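can u pls check wat happens w/ iron/sulfur cluster
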Amino acid sequence: MYLAAFPKKIEYEKVRTQLDKMSLAYEVVNPEPGYRLVGIPAIAMEQEVRSRLASNSMDDYVCSGWVEYRRAAIEIPQDAPQHFQKDIFGTVSIMVVAPCIADQTKIRLIAHISGDMSEVFPYINAEMRGACYNENGPMITYMDGYRMITLYPRRIAIAKADEIVDGWHTLEKIRCCVNDVYARRASIVPLYIMRKKPPALELYKRLPGTNCGECGQKTCMAFALTLWNGNAKPFLCKPIFEGKYASLKDAYLEICAGLGVTADGDFPESQ
Ligand code: SF4
């Protein structure tokens, strides 16, 4: 089965109405009540139903992406989401859902928010010992278990979520963390330096893995370590920038930014 996720409820409703009109079978994966602030319903269907939907010229809807449908191992909480007096997070739209580049059995999400988290980054950096803070982004990267989270002022990238419910669960945790730290910021000493980098292995997982040598290193792992140490520039992996691995570019640049390295290879002063 495949699962379609949507950036807005209206897009979900369009597809659901069409499926009903055509009397096609589907399953709704609903984030309510516990994850209602970070997710909107997704629709799972068999490949045949997906094809029939497509062949019916049903292409006037916006979908965040299609992924293989895996049932969630966790339950949607039955309590209402936590309320914060001042919500700096705002509303969420999941813009991209795709198979994860670093692990095809997991999914990758990109969400946009209406709020702005940048003010809270130095406080999260002070409290979260494993976080990688890049003041020049500004952005903050950290691992939540095996998931890699990157927070930008108005955007969140999650790599290696188990499936859509795990993605909502992770987004809800981020929403609560950001608003909680913001509420307590007067009692936290902000930290403006990068004290940790994302693991070199995560960088390696986003390289083509062909060991072609075009970067001047014998293997992708050697290149990952050289880049991680600040002795190489991201664009040296030509297959990503000029070759057939261009699809890896966004996730690769995301983790490079977490290291404090931009596409042209400059390290910010905090390095
Ligand atoms: S150029 Fe890229 S794919 Fe080739 S060895 Fe270097 S890192 Fe690996």
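Residues 267-271 have pLDDT under 50 and may be disordered.
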